[in-house]
Amino acid sequence: MNTMTLWHISGWEFAALAFAAVLVGFSKTAVSGANTVSLAIFAAVLPARASTGVLLPLLIAGDVLAVVTYRRHAHWPTLWRLFPAVAVGVVAGTLFLVWAGDGMVRVSIGAILLFMAGVTIWRRRTAETPPDPEAVTHRTGRMKAHSYGVLGGFTTMVANAAGPVMSLYLLSAGFRKLGFLGTSAFFFLIVNVSKVPFSVGLGLIDGPSLLLDAALALFVVPGALFGKWAVSRINQRLFEQLVIAATIVGGVQLLLR
């Protein structure tokens, strides 16, 4: 089965996918929530379920670039708290994909993103003191990490849409820019690589999809380089506002598409 022939990708459609690949790189090294725009473009050009399989290797390429760039800023206590809950979410997402249609997937993820964006905004407006990343070791911090971890694992498996979920968690935990980017870089590299066997088993990744990935991977690099340049020029308040705004836009796109 030839991917390019089956999906009849035109020059304009390939250009749209290339632009989405640039956004993948940018989201990994700058504003994580921007990745939802890439998700929407891929789902518009390719069949929705198949698009998740094509997008996953590009996300992994972006993750590698982000780890190389921000590897010294990861907060490992947060990561170790998240991974068990994420594993539960990935398994739940795999089971959900076995029977759920594209419409149910989009509505479910969109509703989750908008709900959590609202909760994050409310918490930030009502908090008396700024949150501390070290609070992840407290009981409340562990409960929050577990709930976001399950949602992150679920959303990343069914739609590669965990970026906004984990962005909201890291913002709510009080991470600054570099800690945010370093922690999310390792998180997504490990999680996305672990998803590959599940995606292959579901038929979402195959030889033809990897050929398309090979053609698009080159566009991830300039996006990542631009993100690295831009993030040092974005102040913390604007950074947080962009992450939340990108999450809301992505949720609305999923609900309306």
From TrEMBL:
Q: Which keywords does UniProt give here? A: Cell membrane, Membrane, Transmembrane, Transmembrane helix, Transport
What membrane topology is annotated for this entry?
Answer: Multi-pass membrane protein
InterPro entries to which the protein is assigned, alphabetical: TM_pro_TauE-like, TSUP
Say which domain of life the source belongs to: Bacteria
Q: Where are the transmembrane segments?
A: 49-70, 82-99, 105-122, 148-172, 178-198, 210-232
Output the Pfam families linked to this UniProt entry.
TauE
Q: Which family does it belong to?
A: Belongs to the 4-toluene sulfonate uptake permease (TSUP) (TC 2.A.102) family.
Name used for this protein in its record: Probable membrane transporter protein
**Organism per entry:** Streptomyces eurythermus
